[in-house]
Fold this protein.
Amino acid sequence: MSTEDASEILVWKKYAAELIGTFILVIGGVGTAVIAGHQVGELGVALAFGLSLLVLCYAIGPISGCHVNPAVTFGQLVAGRISLPTAVGYWISQFVGGGLGGLVLYGLASSLPTYRRAVEGLGANGWGKHSPSAAVNLETGNLVHGYGLSATVVVEVLLTALLVFVVLAATDRLGHPAAAGVAIGLTLTLIHLIAIPIDNTSVNPARSFAVAPFQNGAMAQLWAFIVFPLIGGGLGAVVYALFYGHRRGVTAERVVIHEPVVAERIVITETQ
């Protein structure tokens, strides 16, 4: 939803909602991968991310719009739904919330005596030797790299664009905002099913930032999971504008059908 429409909500509540929401997304999604990944598999991890976002859409969506993702906030900014000062406040809240989630998750993982940070990591994103598809050659004992940087660029830009487009389209007045959370949550699930084997799926700079400090080699590659999701977020906003842009003027009229039932009629007028 557009956060500017809820102007009566105090701004600190919006920032707090984004902080808490990003924290929960990291615990729910990355936490499932780290703590229960061996039990639920990639499908379970994808569902954990999607369900976490779906729940958050309805829990904090009316307060902050439930961005919980700097790339989504950037898309909202490009689409003209929020102002730059609001976006900056959201970004700070999201990175702080993600960082706190990473700290808590590391504490949980470390409480298991057999946990080895250098080996298991903490669900960070990566390519090459840090790609989830990297494997040890049983004959030579050498590490065979997984998907490279080019694959990471493609999936992070395109899949983030898909996510942002769905967020903007599902919450548009021409859509069905009441069902937006379902569409957005399922989209994030689909994205993870595609990208987990490639780079562990970011599409969210705050999610990547949250756990990168706890996994060997992840900090050196973190820049890619900030830059390319933001590019994808901007691309998704541009595609949204092409389909839902200012070529249509949309107004709502209140129409009394039978007292006391009141409905809204959407009037679409073509403008140049």
In short: The beta strands are 135-136, 143-144, 248-258, 261-270.
